[in-house]
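Slide 14.
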Amino acid sequence: MKPRSYGCGLEAALAVVGGKWKPIVLWHLADGPRRFGELRRMVTGISEKMLIQQLREMEADGIVVREDFREIPPRVEYSLTEFGVSLGQALRPLCDWGREHMERIARSKAEVG
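Slide 15: predicted structure.
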């Protein structure tokens, strides 16, 4: 398959982390490995099916690694790769900006919706 070309760096970054859930999952993995059930509880509002899909896509993009411990009961952990850690560091300023403007954003969204 021919590699995709991107018009700018933002387009390439959004191809990896775009969507509602991936940045949130990435954020929760930044503190260390998490089991699937932990992530499901932490990422409020996501369905099990969507979380599985997002994790698989992030794994395919080299952001997340899945480790199956082959135990009974089954235990699987997800953690960030070095590539994923670097993406998390790039998203930190965006998170800081959102935290700084959280009330304003909530007000404007309430006015629209």
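Speaker note: Helices lie at 9-17, 22-29, 36-42, 48-60, 82-100, 102-112.
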